[in-house]
């Protein structure tokens, strides 16, 4: 199992430098039994809940979204956004799946910095707006 193996490797790397990353101490800090964490790391049980993964990621200094993805999960806040417009987000994600990492990083940077196309900026404030090329989609609720 990818998630468990990665979590174990990460914890053991930290353990080489700091004894606080023993399986017992790590389990205690994230609120699970050591035996359960051991089973997770060995892939004997399914990955834990989102909250447990978030606590483990924070404890190990890893990105929670990355660890959730390794566990085959999507963060609940992202899931909630997708649920509001599933067709559009599915199309967006599928459309972005084939672009190179540099282009994707540039796009993410623009989104973070609100460097949107003027049409999109106008649409964000207008609940009846359908951006160009999306005339056949229902109006946002």
Features:
about 140 residues, disordered C terminus, 2 domains, 434 Repressor (Amino-terminal Domain), mainly alpha, single chain, elongated
Describe the structure.
Helix 6 (76-84) crosses helix 7. It is built from nine helices and no strands. The protein is mainly alpha-helical and 141 residues long. It has two domains: 2-75, 434 Repressor (Amino-terminal Domain) (Orthogonal Bundle), CATH 1.10.260.40; 85-141, no CATH class.
* Structure summary, number of beta strands: 0
CATH fold description of the largest domain: 434 Repressor (Amino-terminal Domain)
Shape: elongated
The CATH architecture of the largest domain can be given as Orthogonal Bundle
Which radius of gyration do the C-alpha atoms yield? 20 Å
Counting structural domains, the number is 2
What share of the residues lie within helices?
55-70%
Q: Which sequence of SSEs, written as H and E, runs from N to C? A: HHHHHHHHH
**CATH C-level category of the largest domain:** Mainly Alpha
Distance between the termini: 40 Å
